[in-house]
Write a structure and sequence with these properties.
By secondary structure, the chain is an alpha/beta fold. It has two domains: 1-32 and 79-120 and 167-246, Rossmann fold, CATH 3.40.50.1220; 33-76 and 123-160, 2-Layer Sandwich (SIR2/SIRT2 'Small Domain'), CATH 3.30.1600. It is built from ten helices and nine strands. The chain has a six-stranded parallel β-sheet, sandwiched between helices. Strands 5-4-6 form a three-stranded antiparallel β-sheet, with helices on one face. α7 (107-110) links the parallel β2 (97-101) and β3. The structure holds nicotinamide-adenine-dinucleotide.
């Protein structure tokens, strides 16, 4: 164990309040492609063709086919040691812990995380375009594309935040509520480019005057310069070292 990991492990053990922010990188070792890396999803398809309200309006079937494939691929992916370590942190800190994920997969929940918010929606939820009701649907592939609302028959869409749309308001309230209860001793930013202003803002604001910001990422990001500790490497390898014997 190197010195930075040892220091981070001590901080985790001592912390009373921890906020963890995760991105696509935390699921990479589970076989879920990230967005912007060399082999990422946005290298294969233009995001504006599948992840905007306009694309859905133009061709809902095309958009749904893309999501149906991602939903199906995800079924074979399992949580990795990084997801389990985040859940172990929560188990140790209980109400002193909150997880804010940008991921639309359900691997954190499958590893045991309970106190979490999905800021960009969930891939196994569908939303009626007329009544805005949300339902879970785990069928892969979906029997009918595009799916229709079982109540009113209107078109349903993935319950995912697309480019140009507002982030999930319930997830924002849950995150703000946790932050408002007191400064964090520790904020983790794991496996994300932190390219959205609100992610940077939450990361920087919530550490308060004495808190520490720890980043886990094999590369550098817009938050690396302000991180107290940058742990360079894969989250599935680093995180379990921080929660060992917690
Ligand atoms: P991104 O693709 O922009 O960045 C991924 C980051 O993870 C990079 O900084 C990369 O260096 C890092 N990374 C790669 N492998 C890693 C590993 N093993 N351990 C730790 N870090 C690793 O992704 P982002 O910043 O999360 O972008 C945000 C958007 O991506 C969100 O809207 C989110 O909904 C979406 N997204 C989600 C999933 C998912 O649900 N699993 C997958 C792809 C994209």
């Amino acid at each position: 164990m190197n010195d930075s990991i040892k220091r981070a492990k001590d901080l985790v053990e001592q912390a009373q309040r921890i906020l963890v922010i995760t991105g696509a990188g935390v699921s990479a070792e589970s076989g879920v492609p990230t967005f912007r890396d060399a082999t990422g999803l946005w290298k294969k398809i233009d995001p504006y063709k599948v992840a905007t309200p306009e694309a859905f309006e133009d061709d809902p079937e095309f958009v749904w086919k893309w999501y149906d494939e991602r939903r199906t691929q995800l079924k074979d992916c399992q949580p990795n040691p990084g997801h389990y370590a985040v859940a172990a942190m929560e188990k140790a800190k209980q109400d002193g812990f909150f997880l804010l994920t940008q991921n639309v997969d359900n691997l954190h929940e499958r590893a045991g995380s309970l106190r979490l918010a999905h800021i960009h929606g969930k891939i196994y939820e569908v939303r009626c375009t007329k009544e805005y009701t949300i339902r879970e649907d785990f069928q892969t592939p979906l029997p009918e594309l595009p799916p229709k609302c079982p109540h009113c028959g209107a078109l349903e869409r993935p319950n995912i935040v697309w480019f140009g749309e507002q982030i999930d308001t319930d997830a924002v309230s849950q995150t703000e509520s946790f932050i408002s209860k007191g400064d964090m001793d520790l904020v983790f930013v794991i496996g994300t480019e932190a390219s959205f202003g609100y992610i940077m803002d939450w990361a920087n604001r919530s550490e308060g005057s004495n808190g520490k910001l720890i980043e886990i990422n094999p590369g550098t990001t817009s938050l690396t310069a302000s991180a107290d500790i940058h742990l360079s490497g894969k989250s599935g390898e680093i995180l379990p070292q921080l929660t060992m014997n917690l």
